[in-house]
Amino acid sequence: MSPRMRTRRDGSSTPSRRHAVQPVSVIWLTVVWTLLWGFPDVLIVLSGVLVAVLVCLVFPMPRLRLGGRLRPVALARLLGHVAVDVVAASVQVALIVLRPRCVPRSAVVAVPLRAESDLVLTTVAVLVSLVPGSVVVETRRSTHTLYLHVLDVADEGAAQRYRDDVLALEARVLAAFAPEDPGADVGAAAAAGLTADGGAGGGGSAGGGSAAGRTPGPPSRDTDRDREAAP
């Protein structure tokens, strides 16, 4: 979903401006511009539209394809799982903070997602960041990998359990927003232990914690560095 590139006569490449101005982007940027000024005004709105068009032309983005079908039942299950994860992780973080002489081990964990969709990548990153104890520190579009900083990762086993939880969350997202090509992305949901209608299988929280409360294990070098820094 990268912007289309146009080859110049000298052989260099530049992003194509064709279809760069997208109505949804212009409306959204105009709303943000108006909110930044603090009050609606005809001149402010018109200037916001002008700025939005200019931004779209200078920084062309690919068209976001939202094809697929929304499944209300699977969406409800997804939101329910996220709500449970938020509550469970909040309790776990509170216990860690209140635990006397406790020095929790944090880690940066790489989680390669199965679906090759920027929309799924963004949705999973936002949902994971909502859970206390975990935050996205980097995303890599080329490999669709999330790098997450997570609290209280004791060993590589805990890191792997967190990876499994994130992949289960990805599968629930795919089940809630069914793609047009079922074989492309729904296969990821089946691989993570979810049925096509969004039901939970073998995924979910592992190791006694939810995806929110457990932190994915970082690459081995990062984990070793964190452990060496801990007293």
- Average pLDDT, to the nearest integer? 75
How many individual helices?
A: 7
Whole-Å distance between the termini?
Answer: 45 Å
Task: Bin the strand percentage.
Answer: 5-15%
Oligomer: single chain
Runs in which pLDDT lies below 50 for 5 or more consecutive residues are: 182-231
Outline the structure in words.
The protein has 231 residues and is an alpha+beta fold. Helix content is 49%, strand content 13%. The chain contains 7 helices and 7 strands, in the order ββααβαβαββαβαα. It has helices at residues 23-37, 42-58, 72-98, 118-130, 156-176, 182-191, 220-229, and strands at residues 5-7, 13-15, 69-70, 107-112, 134-140, 145-150, 177-178. The chain has a 3-stranded antiparallel sheet with strand order 4-6-5. Strands 1-2 form a two-stranded antiparallel ribbon. The termini are far apart. The relative contact order is 0.15.
Concise synopsis of the structure shown:
By secondary structure, the protein is of the alpha+beta class. The protein has helices at residues 23-37, 42-58, 72-98, 118-130, 156-176, 182-191, 220-229; strands at residues 5-7, 13-15, 69-70, 107-112, 134-140, 145-150, 177-178. It has a 3-stranded antiparallel sheet with strand order 4-6-5.
Summary keywords:
7 helices, globular, disordered C terminus, two-stranded antiparallel sheet, 3-stranded antiparallel beta sheet, 13% strand, 231 residues, 7 strands, alpha+beta
